[in-house]
Give the backbone structure.
Amino acid sequence: MATRNCNEFTLITGRTRFQAISMESSGKFDKEYEKSVAVAYMNPTDIDGLKLNHIVRITSNDRSIILPVKEDPSLPNRVIFIPIGPWSNFLISSKSIIGMPNYKSVKVCVERVNRDEPLPRLEDLFADIGRPFITFTGRDLVQQHEICNNDVKLATCIFCGAVCSNIIVKVCGNTVLEVLDGCSISVSKFINRHRNRVLRPLIMTPNSFEFKEVPLPIAIDKAADILLNSKHPLIYGLSSTSNEAIEIAIEIAKILKGAIDSTASICHGPTLLGLDGATIKSFKLDMLSDIDTVIIWGANPAEAHPKLMYIIKRYVKSIAVVDVRESETMKMADIGLIIEPGKDLELIRAIRSMIKGYRGGMESVNIGTDIIERFIKTLLNSRKGVIFTGLGLSMGRAKFMNIVELVELVKELNNYGEWYLQPLRGHFNVTGTNILLKKFTGYPFAVDFYSDSPIMAPGVTTAIDLLKNREVDSVVVIASDPVAHMPNECVRILAELSLIVIDSRWSLTASLADVVIPTCLTGIECRGSIYRMDYEIIEVDKIVEPPESVLCDTDVLRMLLDRIKKGLSYD
Amino acid sequence: MIEVVFRLLQKPRAPIDISSISPSIIAGYTINEVGSIAIRYGNRVLKAKDLFEIDCYNHIPGDPKLIKIIFTGMGTEKLWFVGKDMEEGIIEVHGNVGPFAGYEMKGGCLIVRGCARECLGVSMENGIIEVHGEAGSFVGAKPFFSNSTGMRGGRIVIRGNAQHYVGFCMRGGYVEIFGDVGDFLGTKMSGGTIVVHGSSGAYPGLEMINGLIIICKGVEDMDTGFEALEIQDYIQKPYSHSFRAFVGDRLANGFGLILLLNGCK
């Protein structure tokens, strides 16, 4: 890495509110999405120091990409932030330790380039994985809202893991007109539910890479044929669908003796590994009104879980935030600790040392002792507190060890007050995938049924590793978009394999699929049950009628399961 | 020693669960019986002879101690669970081996003339594993979400480097690595010995309760939970700076020992 012209920076990737809104409103093929994710944020002093001309070349793992650069004074020096998407994933290596690639604290070289260098478009990234760029971007539903009584309905928001209830939506015909009491992402999710939809099942014609509309039974037959001919299929995604659909997906993986993994493996998977065997009391979000202190560690709920942050701000006396930059959440906090990327483990252990009365440990974290002492005082003087953890912890170098240490800290703090640990989950039903997989197999994610009994090993049966090592020969993606979130190398392999996408909206993954089966949106067009991040089961109802002849995830998966059972000559 | 050679007929495209072939299982079999052992190839169940060209005498001796199984051919890295629950005899892999090699191994000898993937010797109880190349993460570790423990006995020798979390939750036995190891060596270790001839990544011995870790060529970062022992004064002059000893992890009330040597052979 240390070449002559290398200005070494630490790359961190993550979600932003702008990325989430653009993804929900105009879809991932749109200019808005490109604008929101194909950008690098740097501290203004770094931009001036390198004399950058609005664009920058970033190199990592022998791959380089040119991106527009924007100022972000909240970032520390020599740290570069790129929102997660195909552009950032171009730089991420698929090398994983426990199934989780290094999305945070990647060492990169940053170089000045001329203003006229071309910027890579989505088309160029697709050309790089060896597939032509599909111009089809889904269809918009025809909105029917001429004659109606402006129905007002209570809904449950189905975006993030906080699953806020009591969102008020004004509905007219098949159109959501207005969303009250929801965050900006929630509004975008409901209002734009009609955009970029897949309305008919599609099959890709081999060689020509063109999609053809087919009736549903033919698409199901084709999907079942692919799976029945496959020696080791992988079912991936599931975090944005209902518990009922997840149960059927697990059944499919079981009878096909394939692997099943949820998006948790590249998200909070390490958190779940860290919580293995931990004996701490479970937290419920309803308890927030009775909590004195909230610690938010490596997460940015102000952008990713806005309404939860609003509730925290309203009820909780003292908020402390630990992050690598002055995030929106930190701006709302009473104590903010800015640490170097990847130094979380050191800080947790330094705090534990101080609580136990040992000296030392402070030197490695590079934060003023007075502020840590204030932080510890807050921890020890709270009657009831909760530590919310984010991907900053599960994706750092120490990965699940961060959580192991944090669990120990919570146990020690329980001698002084009542403390809880709660991961801030991303997708609305990612918790459901973990609970149901654990219930049926004993493992919360990355389960492989190919052996006599289910097996799970991070780094082996995790989706990234199964793809990277070419252990699977077909993939079913359900309600997820791995092409936008997995490292480029895995996306290349995904493009080579037989791919079935079952999703409600057109996605980057759908554009690489052999079969695309459309479904309705759970919680808007379909009812179902989901698990909130605190393991609370929540029933969601439909608020508008689904598009004509499009079925719910459960119905499509049940049809597929029946067809597979028939193929395997089950009774 | 009687050799039974399994040569892969072609490069597999899915993982093969090879746990149904071990010296104790094939002892006393005829070559035809060996050829009809059921093996899981992805989600299919095939006969051994459909996957391998099998080369051995017509009758395999009844004593597993006299049997040496050799896996060879293109794609041995797709062989998962090599030597799972193995009790006696020798298994040799000519090439790289897939994950879970030596899983819950109870005796005998597993030799890998190549590299090993993740989860080598997980929950191993006894026996010897020797890897001539490199090894992945979680050598001698505890499997997640299970009630079993890490390695309890036996010996793992790795000639090359090993990745992260070597000896995770290890309770006994001996691991020797001639190359370097990654981060978090001997995490949650409560017994046994790990010797690293090269260097170690960050933070060996976190949450360590007991056991011994010897690292010959330095550590990237040592955690402050380990206390340096002031024993230099008791060692004769030219050797007094030849090693440093640490006890910890004090945050877990542990008494594990880490020795950092300078230039040990």
